[in-house]
Structures are given as structure tokens and as C-alpha cells.
Amino acid sequence: MKKRILTRFTAIMFIIGLMAAIQYNTINEPDLRDTRDEWEIRQELSREKQLHSQLLSEIGSLDETLDKYRAAADASPEQALRETAGELRKSAGLSEAKGPGIEVLVEPSLEAVAMGLEIEGISPDLLIRLVNEINRYNGLYVSIDGKRIINTTAIRDINGQTAVNTKPVDTPPFSIKIISESMEDSEKLYNHLLASRILDDFYIDNLTLNVSEPQYELIIEAYDGTVDTKYLQASEGE
Amino acid sequence: MWLSILGLILGISLGLLTDIQIPPEYANYLSIAVLASLDTLFGGIRAHLQQVYDDKVFVSGFFFNIVLAAGLAFLGVHLGVDLYLAAIFAFGVRLFQNIAVIRRIILAKWAEKKEVRGTI
After folding, report:
1. Alpha carbon of A20: minimum distance to chain B alpha carbons (Å)
2. According to the lineage, what is the superkingdom (chain B) (predicted)?
């Protein structure tokens, strides 16, 4: 009798142990393994390197400014400040920009004209996609139909019309000007836009993108509104 | 007694070494099943110590409790009520009670033995 009880107990204990162990296995899943192959790690590395070089160049330009201040400190501090203010205004989009770039003409597609379809304005979504695409490929300064894109620019639908900086964009044709850092970047952007899938997206809306060859000197007008800095706060510094 | 502990160790090592895993969504059921089986086990030990142990009650209780608890949890998931908490509560309370009774019986036995030794 006692032996039988013992066997039962042993069997039950065995089952309990097994269940507890399985539960333990399930709860303590092994950490996610790094399954990236060499190529993915290389890509990650190259991304980080790019960031590194970008930061280095930023540090370089800031050092330059600092040197300029030091050199001009006794000569004319006002001049140095003016220069810095000018640079800041330029990067904020408040002054005219000049440089190598391309011009993109947005036109109604030939088919739409031939079929006699009514030409509708460009949709804000499509325009935002285009601007994102441009930004992705080193577009530095952009203006759409004479409206300069700055950091706070909103591209949106206002009463059924697509507006940039709250000013309505013409129905196509209109032009988009893009300035890049260098001629090389402009060429890259040019080639990218020619091969981009965004052309198809424009074609769906009965529009075509006519990308001009890169030009050495393109002028983009300044932002003509006032920049609202109501919610800006001075940074604490380092 | 040592044999049953050996069984427990065997079960644990078998589970750990074979690295069996169940889908995480069933982990709830298994945890309740473990609790139910522990409850039955301690119930059995108590019954044995109180001399009321019945083989059929023990074995049927073991499987029935597991199935009932898992079924309750399953029903709870489908009704949107955390019914498995009821099972956890019931088994938890019973577990503590059983262990308390076992402790008392063992203490009483120990004291008795000591007394017997003292009289000799």
C-alpha cells in the first residue's frame, strides 16, 4: 500500500516538475539574437560614419565661426556679429539664396491635355511627398511656385486650394526651384528625381514632372513672411 | 519520500534539458495548472498525514483540478473576465491552509517524539 502511494506521488511530482520546467522555459525566453548579416552591419556602420563626418563638419564650421570672432574681437566685433546674423538669416531662409541647383516644372500631362480633362491643382499630399523626396536627396533650399520653404512652412489644403506658407499654389504649370550644396549634389538629385517613383505618383494625378538639367547658378527668393517664434525658447547651452 | 523528490528533480531536469516551450499565450494556463497540481499535491500529503488518504481521490483530484483551472481560465479569456484570478485565489488559499496543517501535524509529531524520549 505504502509503495503504491509512493509511486503515485513520484509520478505526480514528475509531472509537476515537468510542467514547472516548461513554464520556466516559456517565461524565460532567450534574448533576441542579433541575426544581422555582415552586409547589414556594414550598412549600419556606414550610417554611423556618415553621422560622424556630418558632426565633424559641423564642429569645423562652428570652430571657424569661433576663430572669426576671436580674430575680429579687437578689430570690429560688430562686423563679425553681422556676418553671423547674415549666415543665420540665410540658413533660416530669410535671405535670397544663390547656388547650383535644378528647376522642376510641374505640368499637366500630355494625355490629360489631349483628352481635354480639367486640370486640377496639385494635392498637398503629393507636394509634401515631393518635398520629402527632395530633402532626402540633399536639396538645401527649395521654393515652390515662388514660395520659399523654411522650417515652419506648412503645405496644406486651404478652402480646397493647396497652399504653401498660406499662399495658394497655382494650378500647374508652376516651377519648383531646388538649390543644393554643390553641383555634384544637384546632379545626384537630378538623377534621383528622374528615376524616382514619385513621377508615377504625379502621373496618377495627370501631372508630369519636367526636371531641368542642373544649373550652376540658380536664385531662390527669400521667405517673405514673418517667422513666428512665439513658442521658441532659448537653449540652455552646454 | 526521497523517491518522490527524485521524481520532481527528474521532471525538472527533463523539462529544462529538452527545452520544450509552449506558445506564450498558453503560459497562463500552464501556470494555473502548476498551481492546481501543487495544491493537489499538498492536499495529498496532508491527507496522508491525517490518515485519510484515498488513492482515487488524490489522482482524480490532480487531473480534475488541472482541467477545471485551465477551463476556468479559458472561459475567462473568452468572456473578458479574469476568471483565472478566482482559480489562483482559491488554490493559493488552499495551498497555504494545507501547508499550515502539514506543519502543525509535523510539529505535533515532533513534540510527541520528544516527550516520549524525555520519559525514557
Report:
1. 6
2. Bacteria
**Is the bond leading into A173 cis (omega within 30 degrees of zero)?**
yes
Q: Which residues from chain A sit within 8 angstroms of residue B44, using beta carbons? A: 9, 12
pLDDT tens string B42-84: 888 888 888 888 888 888 888 898 898 888 888 888 888 888 8
Position A60, amino acid: G
Parallel, antiparallel, or unpaired: how do β-strands A174-180 and A147-149 relate? unpaired
Does the distance separating the beta carbons of B11 and A25 come in below 8 Å? no
A109 plus A216 within the same structural domain: yes
Beta strands in chain B (DSSP E): none
Sole residue written with cell 526651384: A177
Residue A104 lies in a domain: yes
Spatial contact of B4 and A10, defined as CB atoms under 8 Å apart: yes
ipTM of the prediction: 0.82
Residue B75, φ and ψ in degrees, nearest 5: -60, -40
Same domain, A73 and A162: no
Q: Verify whether the Cβ–Cβ distance A6 to B4 is below 8 Å.
A: yes
Residues A105 and A198 in one domain: yes
A169, A139: one domain: yes
Counting the structural domains of chain A, the total is: 2
Distances (CA, A) of A222 to A34, A143, A147, B25: 49, 9, 8, 59
The parent domain of residue A209 ranges over: 97-220
Q: Within this chain, do residues A133 and A165 fall inside the same structural domain, yes or no?
A: yes
Provide the whole-model pTM: 0.47
Tens of pLDDT along A208-222? 888 888 888 888 888
